[in-house]
Structures are given as structure tokens and as C-alpha cells.
Amino acid sequence: MQGKKIVVLGTGGTIAGTLSGPAGGYVAAQKAVAALLAGLPLPAAVELVSEQVAQVDSKDMDLAVWQALLRRCRHWLAQPEVQGLVITHGTDTLEETAYLLQAVLAPAKPVVLTCAMRPADAIDADGPQNLLDALTVAAEPGAHGVVVVCAGHIHSAFDVQKVHTWQLDAFSSGEAGDLGQVVQGGVVLTRNWPQSTVKYAADAIEKIVSLAAWPRVEIVLSHAAVSEATVDALVSPEVAARFGAPPVRGLVVAATGNGTLHRVLEAALQRAAAQGVRVVRATRCAQGRVWPQPGDAWPDSQGLSPVKARLALTLELL
Ligand code: SIN
After folding, report:
1. Is residue 98 part of a domain?
2. Residue 305: C-alpha distances to residues 84, 99, 245 (Å)
């Protein structure tokens, strides 16, 4: 880790949470990112800069925080002396933020998101080791792209998913497997770093980070005894207008198995598509992906989970 400048951006989460919140119980996003770094045993030669971009429980992640984070990442990544970035984040929507940063920035330097399942003041807090591991990955020569570091595993932004509600090793890359591990303070890589092919020109990124609203894309679930009323209500201009919401431009359906849909939901989606709404099929299965079949009415999500497919469609509609 010697002689490198690494920027640590704080956004909140349990890694910055405490057991002794204002109401006497656990609350996420209480400690400043500088305080999380304060006690870490870092080599003196590492130059760390920290910045508090947000302080949120990531279940409440929103467009304003994402845009602020994209802006700060873009700023710091452009500084030649910066080797890489670390972002402290809540676990609940971490995979969405990771995917968004990779899809928009495709950074040629490492951007490492990390988190914790136990609050910062727990006696057995996992945040400090995760943060130290994330710094190790950010300082790794040749590292690039957006990755997630948790419980000693390095995951790619594309594959990573929170799969457990309370275990410390709460993330998985499914069948793809993790990119590697952090073992005894070093990186052991088993797959390549994420692709760094930038898809967006600078002015397109400027649009993404400054628009007051992104195209509205919603997720619907195909399940037994599903009601067509859900989709009809979602795409109804009257319902949107009642809440001052923009009209729905896209629907990601978390389909059963290999992208199949309940016939009732399919009929409702066909009505939505006839109104110009884009439909994409992801799967509600934890493993595998939707493989295209001849005659498919709607495209599949290219292996993306429903929440990431929602972001991919949002960016496409921009
Ligand atoms: C959050 O996602 O901000 C809270 C939960 C967590 O970090 O585990």
C-alpha cells in the first residue's frame, strides 16, 4: 500500500452505524467516514483523503445521492495522483450503486465499495477489516473497475448480490464466483478485473449527473395468482399524475424460472407495451439467467438481476 493516494468516500450504512442511536437502538449512518478511518493500522506512506458524500441508510438511496457520488468519483478519478477510490456504503442497495458506477464510469482505476453487517461500535464489528481490505484492493497495482469487498471476498459489480440478511459474508457472485480474495493483507485474484470500456462520452455523463429526474422504470414480480391491476395502475397516467410522478417508461419483470410470465401478467404487460412502455425480463431465481428463446416477446436482462436491469433500462432510456 506504500506511497499511494487513495480517496475514501463515505455514504453511510451499517459500517457507519451505531448500536446506541438517538432512540437507544441500532441506527445506520451515524459516524463520519474520517472517524471510521481513524483507528485503522495503515502504513504511514499511504496518503488517504476522505470525503463525506452522504450519510444515509442505503435502503433510502435516491437519485440525488447517486448523482453526488457519480460526480465525486468522476472528479477524483480524473486526478493523476489518485490510485483508486474506496466507498463506504450500506449493504442493502450496495449492488445497485456498484452496478451504476460501473455502467456509467467503467473506471480505469479501482473503485472499491465496502460495507459491514455489524455497526461500528459493536465489540465484534466487521467494518474495520472490510475497510482495510478495501484499501488493500484499491492500492493493488493493475486493479480497475468497480468491485465490492466484503468478508475477505472481492466481487464484480455485475455479479454481486446481497444474499443473506445477517451473516457477515452476506454477498455472493453466484455461479460466476468472486473475483478473488484478500488474504493476509494481499490480493489473490481468480478472475479478471471488470471491463473498463467506457460507454458514455463526457457530455452524456454530464447529463446523467445533472438531470433532475431519470426515466421512470419500475419492477413487477410474476407470481402465482398475480393481478393484472398492478401493471395497469403502474402505467396509468391518471395514477402517476395524482402523485406528481412522471409516467412509467419501462418495466422490468422479475419473471419465473427462465423468463416465463403468468398469463395474466403477460396480458397486462402487452397492454403496457402497446402504450410504448419498454419491457425487459429478468428472473426472480437467485441463480442462473434468462436465456433467450425463439419468439420471445421481450428481451431478457442479459444476466442482470431485476434491480440492476432496472438501472440498465433507465440508462438506456436516458
Ligand atoms: C444500509 O444498507 O445502509 C443498512 C444496512 C447495512 O448496511 O447492512
Report:
1. yes
2. 27, 10, 25
